[in-house]
Specification:
- It holds the Pfam family PseudoU_synth_2.
- GO terms for molecular function: pseudouridine synthase activity; RNA binding.
- It contains 10 helices and 18 strands.
- By secondary structure, the protein is an alpha+beta fold.
- It has 3 domains: 74 residues, RNA-binding S4 domain (Structural Genomics Hypothetical 15.5 Kd Protein In mrcA-pckA Intergenic Region, Chain A, Roll); 93 residues, Pseudouridine synthase; 159 residues, no CATH class.
- The relative contact order is 0.12.
């Protein structure tokens, strides 16, 4: 289970330690190599680093080359520092980078990652199903599935490797989302299940705790007390379904305009009210995405006026980027209608200013530097920022061969959330 109470720092093992409910990784050096890309040929390494990566300034990359953190490996030998500055990259050159990694912490999900509980857990993760080909887990919130961005050792794939298990994720769940995670034990099975997902033969049911009294919730009073129904029972009555059908896209400010705006694609989600919490004016909702777009459930709920209670982006009460959110709520497809390219670019610049303004206003602690590598050190995230009240409850394929349902997250059962809201009134 996830530990919500702050914990004292435990003994560090293999660079891993725990503090205040977070799983933390001590800084370490990490090297990676890649073959020179065609567009790099004939250019000096400093020029390539400065133009393409942009994570550091040209001066910082120059210092990195002097420290041999960036190297050109030619004919299995690393060039000297002076040669690395002057040489032009050739075909078959290998670019080697050595970085001092500062991984962000993740939410601590268990007290002992080595506890297997006679096959019921692995790496502290709850096992939903295991056979020779598959490992199905109940993913906790607050940890990414596989190495990505700044995360490497703080990922489920790497945690499982530490337990001697190689597993291949067959689908994605956001870092802050919990629930059914189907992993294959070999590439063949991973490709097979990924094919089924692409063909939309998998039915997925999520749970979300949302703001307000959800449509048709009055027809669900029978579900308001006692144990929750199964995922199948919760979505059995089509008369209780509310269907949201609107186009979905994302806006990634790390990209340049207009590539920052992804193509808007049609998306359909069915919603079924499960339980209404009168004291907090919140509803537990079962969600069945018919299509599979990024953040589909979260965006659809927000557009319906029932955002997920603790959604850090798509709930107006929580978002740090209200202008960008309002645009996505109002504009279902940016590529059609009355928005000109010039106007769209103006929106993009506004979103950039909003983002920069927020980051410039963050606590000064983020401007502290690592004494060893000079990188900016960011403050630890808050526990509540690593959890979303969205849970992948059930996955089932059209044949019924794959049929998995997880245990319920505490926020779907905990009546204390309702009582706390009542006490504030």
């Amino acid at each position: 289970m996830t530990l919500d109470k702050p914990r004292q720092v435990l003994e560090m093992v293999n660079g891993i330690y725990y503090a205040h409910g977070l799983r933390k990784i001590a800084p370490y050096y990490h090297s990676r190599t890649s073959f020179a890309k065609g567009r790099w040929l004939g250019r000096q390494l400093l020029e390539v680093l400065s133009d393409e990566l942009k994570a550091l300034s040209s001066e910082q990359y120059s210092l990195g080359i002097q420290r041999q953190e960036f190297q050109i490996v030619r004919n299995a030998c690393a060039l000297s520092v002076p040669e690395t500055f002057t040489a032009k990259i050739e075909n078959k050159d290998i670019i080697k980078t050595i970085s001092h990694k500062h991984e962000p912490p993740v939410r601590q999900w268990c007290s002992d990652e080595s506890d297997t509980e006679a096959g019921k857990k692995i790496g502290g993760f709850e096992i939903v199903h295991e056979c020779s080909d598959l490992l199905v887990l109940n993913k906790p919130s607050g940890i990414p599935i596989h190495p990505t961005g700044r995360y490497y050792k703080n990922s489920m794939v790497e945690v499982l490797k530490n337990q001697g298990t190689d597993a291949y994720p067959t689908h994605r769940l956001d870092k802050i989302t919990s629930g059914v995670l189907i992993m294959a034990k070999n590439p063949y099975m991973a490709n097979k299940i990924q094919g089924q997902i692409r063909q939309r033969t998998m039915q997925k049911t999520y749970l979300a705790r949302v703001e307000g009294c959800f449509p048709k919730v009055q027809d669900s009073h029978a579900l308001g007390k006692g144990c929750l129904p199964s995922a199948t029972e919760a979505c059995a009555d089509e008369n209780k379904a509310t269907v949201e059908d609107s186009e979905i896209y994302t806006i990634e400010l790390k990209k340049q305009f207009p590539a920052a705006f992804s193509v808007a694609r049609n998306a359909t989600t069915k919603f079924y009210p499960v339980r209404y919490y009168a004291a907090s004016n919140q509803t537990l909702v079962a969600c069945q995405p018919i299509t599979g777009r990024t953040h589909q459930i979260r965006i659809h709920l927000a557009r319906m006026g029932h955002p997920i209670v603790n959604d850090p982006f798509y709930n107006k009460k929580n978002t740090k980027f209200p202008r960008r959110l309002q645009f996505m709520l109002d504009v279902y497809n940016w590529n059609i209608g009355s928005i000109s390219s010039e106007r769209l670019e103006s929106y993009f610049k506004d979103f950039l200013r909003e983002s920069n303004s927020f980051h410039d206003g963050e606590p000064s602690s983020i401007r502290e530097e690592c004494k060893e590598c000079g990188i900016n050190l960011y403050p630890d995230p808050q526990l509540h920022d690593l959890q979303l009240y969205l849970h992948a409850w059930k996955y089932r394929d059209s044949t019924g061969d794959l049929d998995y349902e997880t245990s319920l997250p505490i926020w779907a059962l905990d009546h204390n959330l309702e009582l706390q809201a009542a006490m504030k009134e």
